[in-house]
Amino acid sequence: MPAAPNADLHCHSTVSDGTLAPAALAHRAHGNGVQLWALTDHDETGGLAEAGEAALALGLRFVPGVEISVSVGAQTVHIVGLGIDPTHPTLLAGLAQVRSGRELRARMMARSLEQQTGLRDVYLGAARHAGNPTLISRTHFARFLVEHGICGNTHEVFGRFLTPGKPGYVEHDWATLQDALGWIQAAGGHAVIAHPGRYRFNSTEELALFTSFKDMGGAGVEVMTGSHSAADFRKYAGMALAFNLRASRGSDFHSPQESRCDLGQLPPLPADLAPIWELLH
Ligand code: AMP
Ligand code: MN
Ligand code: MN
Ligand code: MN
Fold first, then answer.
1. CA angle 203, 207, 211 (to 5 degrees)
2. What are the residue boundaries of the Polymerase/histidinol phosphatase N-terminal domain, all occurrences included (predicted)?
3. Given this structure, which CATH class describes domain 7-100+173-279?
4. What confidence tier does 281 reach under pLDDT thresholds 50, 70, 90?
């Protein structure tokens, strides 16, 4: 059997909430020994052309990707699409629809953060951190609050203000699971449940998510990812086997300053799992 490649199939550029441009990410991935690399910006494919060109020049195998925001009940679930055609009209229209809700959400977040912190012009301040005006995310607000000394780091901002139940959190309706999978599949891609260990489902709800995902033609689940503990690695390796899903590996790298897990640095996938990259050509 050929040795498994060093695959990193989940990360973010300045086109969503990362701090490195797509070409800079390609160089960092290559420098870290990544052999198979996907860029998966939130709800946006605008960085894939630059990423693909830079990867080609480096001799780095590139997989076009995206990470779609989905609502499942009251929770947000992220679905990564891998091997997509980034120009497919159905996918592009779907992603544009998902992005279109972000501005009003951001204005509501800004109002409540102004009330909480006494800062002014929070919307404009967060927007200055966003490399893409159609993609203002909670991360950009977190960076603005750190810049102004409200918190010491972005994780602290999320804990105090930006997670469900906290004062700067705004409920939002993202795509449906069915729509997100439909767009990914229309564009020739494979859908993967991102970082399942981060959701707050009880076990019945989690089984329901995996069951409907599989029934809709979902292909894989992230087993190795930057926010998973060793217990999560084991749990979701078991879920991949139980649901006959392929396993993925992706750091979810956002920034050299903020991310604990750098590109290409996760442990390898357990050898008994079928890797998602066997489907990617
Ligand atoms: P949004 O799409 O605007 O809801 O922002 C989601 C992004 O916020 C995620 O992709 C992460 O990059 C970031 N994020 C979510 N929770 C945390 C956390 N606890 N600490 C740091 N970043 C987080
Ligand atoms: Mn993010
Ligand atoms: Mn995510
Ligand atoms: Mn991500």
1. 175
2. 7-72
3. alpha beta
4. confident
CB of 259 closer than 6 angstroms to any ligand 1 atom: no
Reference 19, options 254, 253, 262, 263; nearest CA is 254
Distance CA 190, CA 84 (A): 7
**For 102-162, which CATH class?**
mainly alpha
Q: Which of 10, 3, 169 is nearest to 78 (CA)?
A: 10
Q: How far does the centroid of ligand 4 lie from the alpha carbon of residue 120, in Å?
A: 29
Rounded to 5°, the CA angle 221-141-51 comes to 50
Domain residue spans in the chain? 7-100+173-279, 102-162
Q: Could you tell me the distance, in angstroms and rounded to a whole number, from the CA of residue 69 to the centre of ligand 4?
A: 10
How far is residue 175's CA from residue 177's CA, in Å, rounded to a whole number? Answer: 6
Identical fold, 7-100+173-279 and 102-162: no
Q: How many CA atoms lie within 13 A of 244 on its CB side?
A: 3
State pLDDT tens for residues 104-136: 999 999 999 999 999 999 999 999 999 999 999
Residues with CB in 5 Å of ion ligand 3:
78, 194
Tokens 């629809």 belong to which residue?
A: 97
pTM of the predicted model over 0.90: yes
Burial status of residue 71 (CB atoms within 10 A of its CB: 0-12, 13-18, 19 or more)? middle
Q: CA-CA distance, 97 to 210, in Å (whole number)?
A: 25
Query: Within 13 Å and on the Cβ side, how many CA atoms surround 45?
Result: 26
